[in-house]
Automatic annotation (TrEMBL):
Residues 1-21 form the signal peptide. Residues 68-343 form the Fe/B12 periplasmic-binding domain. It comes from the Bacteria. Residues 28-49 are annotated as: Disordered. InterPro entries: ABC_Transporter_SBP (IPR050902), ABC_transptr_periplasmic_BD (IPR002491). Residues 36-49 have a biased composition (Low complexity). The keyword Glycoprotein does not apply. This is ABC transporter substrate-binding protein. Belongs to the bacterial solute-binding protein 8 family. Keywords: Signal. The keyword Cytoplasm does not apply.
Length: 343
């Protein structure tokens, strides 16, 4: 393996926390739908306003620009391709994340060697001799069975870089996690200006997609499966990127006050909230998107909601709703159109 000097992730995390000390989240103005919260800093990523989990490798430092990169998912590979760094990618895991892409970038994603059809085994990743291993979720670094931890990668001479959510006591109302990841990638490759341009482009796409201003909130429920009366209705909570996308689209996630990735609501609570939009989160069920949507719309637990009565139910792939993606603005667009229909 090529000799590399990597600053330990624990040291980098300490630096990050020290630099961001005292910059916790505050209340946010929900009327701002420009691609970031109203309280964000003027920086492209809003990084000065957040603290990330110190166990998540949000930053990386190498003595030289990475030449061999393994991505833990094709979504991360797409970011590198868009930044003009596709020739550094020597392999990827989780190739299903390319499903939502088309055109030239899809062709380039199809050309990336697949190391693992699943989540990326430690053996396959390390054997590829990467300078850098990167992905859109910190769970790809030891959180999923068989994946390499940050420490394992460092022991093998590889640096790790992941998209990292903010640690905050208010709901996520933006997609700044996506912007921070783009910034971290572009900094690692010394192409900061390209990163800023990409962030500006996505911000513009989000702004263009945003529904018109309204006087009243439009309640939104997201579902990845048909509700079970005996088990509660499982949805996305306020701590997930999905909440930020729904907010930017002009909607209000009816579970936004549950500050966790996933939330469970009673049928009574959903009926009372009366969602005007239902977002079907595809990519988890074995059934087709159309069948899943039809089954959700046929659920007796949702029959009295305005969303079902008005057939205002849309499908959004989990790959662009729940994780940082080049296509997050597409998710905003789909939901914003549904929100506008309900207004």
């Amino acid at each position: 393996m090529t000799s590399r000097r990597i600053l330990p992730s624990a040291f980098l995390a300490t630096l990050t926390i020290a630099a961001l000390a005292g910059c916790g989240g505050g209340s946010m103005d929900h009327s701002d739908h420009s691609g970031h919260s109203a309280g964000s800093s003027a920086s492209p990523t809003g990084a000065a306003d957040v603290v990330t989990d110190p166990t998540c490798p949000a930053v990386v430092s190498l003595e030289s620009v990475p030449e061999r990169v393994v991505t833990m998912d094709a979504g991360a590979a797409a970011f590198l391709i868009e930044l003009g760094l596709g020739d550094t990618v020597v392999g990827t895991a989780a190739p299903d994340f390319k499903t939502d892409f088309s055109g030239d970038i899809r062709a380039q994603l199809d050309a990336v060697p697949v190391l693992d059809d699943g989540q990326g085994s430690a053996e396959a990743v390390i054997a590829s001799d990467p300078d850098l291993v990167t992905g859109i979720s910190q769970y790809e670094f030891g959180g999923f069975d068989g994946t390499a931890s940050v420490d394992q990668l460092e022991s093998a001479g590889s640096a790790a870089l992941s998209a990292c959510g903010a640690v905050q006591d208010v709901p996520v109302d933006n997609i700044d996690e996506t912007y921070r990841y783009i910034s971290a990638l572009s900094d690692a490759f010394d192409v900061t200006e390209r990163g800023e341009e990409l962030i500006d482009r996505i911000r513009t796409q989000v702004s263009d997609a945003t529904a018109a201003s309204r006087d009243a909130d439009v309640p939104v429920l997201s579902l990845s499966s048909v509700p079970d009366a005996g088990a509660g209705i499982n949805t996305n909570g306020g701590s997930r990127l999905a909440n930020g996308i729904i907010t930017l689209a002009g909607g209000t996630n009816i579970a936004r006050d549950q500050l966790q990735d996933f939330a469970s609501l009673s049928a009574e609570a959903v009926t009372e909230a009366n969602p005007a939009v239902i977002v079907v989160v595809s990519g988890f069920a074995d059934s087709s998107d159309e069948d899943l949507k039809a089954a959700i719309m046929a659920s007796p637990l949702l029959a009295e909601t305005d969303a079902v009565k008005n057939e205002n139910v849309v499908v959004v792939p989990q790959r662009i709703l729940l994780s940082p993606s080049l296509l997050n603005a597409d998710a905003v667009q789909i939901i914003a159109d549904a929100v506008a229909n309900a207004s």
